[in-house]
Structure formats: C-alpha cells, structure tokens
C-alpha cells in the first residue's frame, strides 16, 4: 500500500447537468428543449423515460447543496438550461429562469462551494432546432446573446465558465450516430454542427473578454484513448484515426485554429467538408483559461478495412467492463492527459467528468455498497496523482455524477451517481463511493 497525496489547492468537485437532474420541465416559463422533444418521441429513450421530473433538483437543490457540503467539495459543476433563460431561444429573457439559478448559486456560495457553470449541456431550445439548430449559423449569435445575459447576471458570483459540454456528442453522437437528440444520421450535418458549435464557443469567449467578466472561461471536450494493438504502421494509423475523431478534431481547432489535415482528407474521401468561413478558425482558437476534459474509457484498436468510419476495430484484451460496457482503462486517463500537455502546452486542465455506471442495489439502511464504483475512482485517482507528479497541469477533478440522474438514451436504468436517487420518492442516499470520496477530500489523499 502506498500513500498518495494531492496538492492542498487541488479542486475536488462533482458534476451534473440541467436536463438530467432538474425536472420541472414546464415550470416558471421554461421553454421546450430538443431533449424534451426527443425523450417524448416513443422509442428514442429506454423505457420511454424522460426528464419531466428527473431528480426534481429544480425544487430540491437545497438538498443537493447540503450533500455537496457534507461531501466536502469546494466546487460544483452544473449547467444552465438555455430554455429557462430564453424559452424561445432568443427574444424575451425569462426572469424566473434567472431567479432559479440565482437561488442555486447563492446557496452554493453560502455553503463555501464555487459554482462551475456549463452554458451548453445539450438542451438546445426546440424553437432554434425548428430553424435548423446548430446547422444554422444564426444559432451562433443566439448562443452568444444567451451567454451575455448569463455572464452579466452572475458576474462576480460564477467565476468558472465552461462554454460547451462535449461538442463531439453534440455533433457526431447526435447528428451522425443519431443516438442523442435531435437524432440525425448525416456526416456532413455532424461536421457542420461541430464547426458551428466551436465558432459559437470562440464568439462566447470573445464576448466574455469584451465584457470584462470576472473569473475564467474554458470549454470541455470528451477525450478517449485508443492504443494501437500492435506497432504495425496500419494499426498505429488506425488507432490514431480513432483518437483524432474523438480528440484532435476538437482540440486542434480549440488550441491551434486548424483541423487535422489527415482527418479533413479522410472526411473528404467520405464526401464531407468543413464549412469554414473567413475568420472562423481564429475565432475558435481564442485563448482559454483552462481546458475541461471528460474521460471515462478507452481501449485498443487495430486496422480492419471497412470497420466503422476509420477502418479501426476495437480489440478486446480483457478489460473489466462497467454497466455501460465501457472498459475500465484508468491508464488511458494518464495517456490522454499527458498527450494534451505535450501537444497543447501548459493550459490548466480540469477533469470535468469521470465516473462509472454499475448496477446499484439498495441495501439495508438505504446503503449502497458500490465497491466496483469505488474501485473505479481509486484507479483513476491514482492516475490523477501520477499526472500531477509528472508535471501535467491538472488542477482539479469533478466526479460524474453527484446524483443518479437521467442518463440520456439509457433513461434511468443506468446509474452514475455517488448518491443513489430513489425515483419513486426522490430521496437521495449517499453510496459507499460518496463516503470514499469524502474521506479522500478530508485527508487530501488515500492509501492506494
Ligand atoms: C463517452 O462518455 C462521454 O464522454 C460522456 C459520458 N457522460 C457524458 N459524456 C455527459 O457529459 C454526461 O451528461 C453523461 O451523463 C455522462 C455519462 O454517460
């Protein structure tokens, strides 16, 4: 057993998102989002679950803040629902929407917890989708107007801002693979969406700077790690294409203002091109104060002609799997964040999501002995410590998620929380993994 200790100023937090926890989907003037439309469309979400009630955090946010305070975190990442601020996406501001988030932010600050706010965690106002959504460049301006209202409303109270959560999911998962809202399956559309979201990110950063808003701004990309199964040139190239699809396609524009040319050529061979207008790439590459990285898993890949979009097949080498059938590949976290540091320099890094889904069983006394989840956290905390020790500017970690919540197309059957949500009573019960993390925070580390 070896003791691992984190820097005294290492930030510990947990993360959630508006559509996944709030509920109150028609309350106080909230407009419909694409996720209301999608989840209300039969067959799109397991069991036809939806976020109409979710964890009812809209009414129970004080319980959530109390759980955060007891956990000992110094930060809490959550998202603001655009449709609560602009029910029609643009036009009149809904003051009651702002009022809800004022109550949440004030409760957090009162508890000594810093709010870390994501502006866009997938709940696009349906009214904008009806006009083309992120395929329509007008949505960029609408996003910047929304951001400006929220920046001004919370200037000085919210000091860590994330523009987008996972543009890869907003674009490829939602518009090429089609698993998430709005559920399209068109490669060119997905590339358009990715580009316009990144331009919107850059324009929001420019607005943040122009307004002189206090605090820091960044964005969050979901990164994964695909290790070549062999050292053959074919396997190395195939694994790189897999990584580039998830990682470089977003990180290169964000940090260098360019798309990786070999991927541009690859997409061109599939008949798709990026709709770049003059000035777009400079806008996207606005300097950011930190980069958020969501990491869950990775694996090994090898060349196989015709396999997927990149002639790269996954090789099963015996990883333990979570209930999402994702590999438990903690070393992948070390590899991908080491790559970020090597490729993109000393911009501070926050792990803005990391966690695992397992089949949780409610035991006596409303306890949940989620040993597999605790073990997942231990393995990834060890890699976080390894990263800090190796000089990677890793400044903090947000566990996904505080609560079991609406897990998108999986509905409520997949639980990621360190707190168990009883969806009948909406009561919250801390799991063993909650107490493990509480102990790590309290003691600044743990016996690995
Ligand atoms: C491949 O995993 C992605 O990076 C990812 C995983 N997750 C996410 N992104 C989203 O940001 C969350 O809203 C999900 O609830 C969470 C768990 O699925």
Automatic annotation (TrEMBL):
Active site residues of this protein: 166 (proton donor), 353 (nucleophile)
Record flagged with keyword Hydrolase: yes
Entry-linked InterPro entries: GH (IPR017853), GH_1_N_CS (IPR033132), Glyco_hydro_1 (IPR001360), Glyco_hydro_1_AS (IPR018120), Glyco_hydro_1_beta-glucosidase (IPR017736)
Segment forming the signal sequence: none
Gene Ontology MF annotations: beta-glucosidase activity
Pfam family, one: Glyco_hydro_1
GO biological process: one example: cellulose catabolic process
Catalysed reaction equations from the record: Hydrolysis of terminal, non-reducing beta-D-glucosyl residues with release of beta-D-glucose
Listed EC numbers: 3.2.1.21
Alphabetic keyword roster: Carbohydrate metabolism, Cellulose degradation, Glycosidase, Hydrolase, Polysaccharide degradation
Top-level lineage group: Bacteria
Positions contributing to substrate binding: 20, 121, 165, 296, 400, 407-408
Family of this protein: Belongs to the glycosyl hydrolase 1 family.
Name this protein carries in UniProt: Beta-glucosidase
Organism: Cohnella terricola
